Amino acid sequence: MAGSNDDRLDSDLEGAHLDTLAVRAGQLRTMETEHGEPIFTTSSYVFRSAADAAARFSGEDPGNVYSRYTNPTVRTLEERMAALEGAEQAVAMASGMAGILGVCMALLTSGDHVVVSRSVFGTTTTIFTRYLKRFGVETTFVDLTDIAGWQQAMTARTAMLFVETPSNPLSEVADLKQLSQLARQHDAMLVVDNTFCTPILQRPMELGADIVVYSATKYLDGQGRCMGGLVVGRAEQMKEMVAYLRAAGPTLSPFNAWVILKGLETLRLRMQAHCDAAKQLALWLQQQPKVERVHYSGLPEHPQHELASQQQRGYGGVIAFEVAGAKAEAWRFIDATRMISITANLGDTKSTITHPATTTHGRLSQEERDRSGIRDNLIRVAVGLETVEDIIADLERGLAAV
Ligand SMILES: *Cc1c(COP(=O)(O)O)cnc(C)c1O
Q: Which CATH number covers residue 350?
């Protein structure tokens, strides 16, 4: 834009800090002078001339063509997310699963082998076992914390290591530095699902990861309003992601992009509040006679507490605990609560409670659950932003029913 007044509209964020980037990075304006981010609800874009159209289609001119793969609101989200991650580029997708499948479709090929941590999100497991297998990609599952197991699983064809850390619901922590070294030794890429930590609590690329994936549906939006996914990494690989997005079309809607953008603006404050409340709850739960064990990496007793302290800037908002008894007691606990939402979702302002053995992990066999430590008396709480005393009061109702 010409003129000294208009120059002010292109703000300079050189050297800006995280909170500033979360509020301002990627902002793009129309011919108007919006203070906020406009939502571009358009499927396509007009060109000034036939030559202009040709240049946009060939990629010579990087302007917008068609909203399946370029939209200014979506781009604002992508730029802001890349800024928060300290990464070259981010690509937005319709959901977290669309992002995870997209990474595989864009970067794997038939004959490749992948090593995946056993405790990943259930549907992620389905992508590997049910779909990629059909296209000739073999998967070996390993225990998250067993580095020797990861080493043993590597083959000459291993192209990708996929890990979700901390794990759901036991907050087990994988050593990302070690895994990235292992990946590099085998010329494979390390992909990290960072949904639980967000870039506020963990920056996997700084520890050597190649690609970071997010379900934006969780903490990035943070208010349970919409679905979304984000994939972050180096430009070279993100170019492949964009090509896949253009071909396959798992596009994030501009409205959802705008909702998630607004979520990013408060992400650090919310993550801090989730972490503080979870810590308080974990300590309180530890003192309850009817609670046998609390799983939270912020507790010194947690087996990977030290690793979590080095690798993360906080321990997250998800805690799990075992009540005295078995499934019946866990269900009675859950049913006696009167405020906390009974749902398997997480990363919301509203606290949620679930019984992993019969919901998120219900498709596993008893043996698989035993192996993963998902016991029948285990309850997961994803701590929201209500006043902690009120969450505790609700959990007290649960305890009284055990
Ligand atoms: C929810 C979730 C996903 C899937 O994301 P959707 O947005 O639901 O498609 C993937 N990974 C983790 C860790 C999740 O919690």
A: 3.90.1150.10
10 Å CB burial of residue 110 (0-12, 13-18, 19+) is exposed
Whether 207 and 346 share a structural domain? no
Q: Rounded distance, CA 13 to CA 16, Å?
A: 5
Which domain-ending residue is among 210, 243, 264? 264
Pocket test for ligand 1, best of 119, 172, 218, 227 (most atoms within 8 A of CB): 218
Q: Which two tokens stand for residue 320?
A: 């799990």
* Ordered per-residue pLDDT tens for the chain, 402 residues: 334 455 666 678 989 999 999 999 998 777 787 888 999 999 999 999 999 999 998 989 988 999 999 999 999 999 999 999 999 999 999 999 999 999 999 999 999 999 999 999 989 999 999 999 999 999 999 999 999 999 999 999 999 999 999 999 999 999 999 999 999 999 999 999 999 999 999 999 999 999 999 999 999 999 999 999 999 999 999 999 999 999 999 999 999 999 999 999 999 999 999 999 999 999 999 999 999 999 999 999 999 999 999 999 999 999 999 999 999 999 999 999 999 999 999 999 999 999 999 999 988 889 888 888 899 999 999 999 999 999 999 999 999 999
Ligand 1 pocket, residue 169 CB under 6 Å: no
Q: Ligand 1 pocket, 85 CB below 6 A?
A: no
Assess whether the C-beta atom of 195 lies below 6 angstroms from ligand 1: yes
Total count of domains within the chain: 2
Q: How far is the CA of 46 from the centre of ligand 1 (A)?
A: 35
User: Residue 50's domain is classified under what CATH number?
Assistant: 3.40.640.10
The answer as to whether 213 is a domain residue is yes
Residue ID of nearest Cα to ligand 1 atom 5: 96
229 CA to centre of ligand 1 in angstroms: 8
Q: How far, in Å, CA of 173 to CA of 304, rounded?
A: 6
Q: Count the neighbouring beta carbons within 10 Å of the beta carbon of residue 30.
A: 9
DSSP-assigned letters across all residues of 362-373: TTS-HHHHHHHT
344 contacts 359 by C-beta, under 8 angstroms: yes
Angle formed at CA 193 by CA 159 and CA 195, multiple of 5 degrees: 170
CB 92 near ligand 1, within 6 Å: no
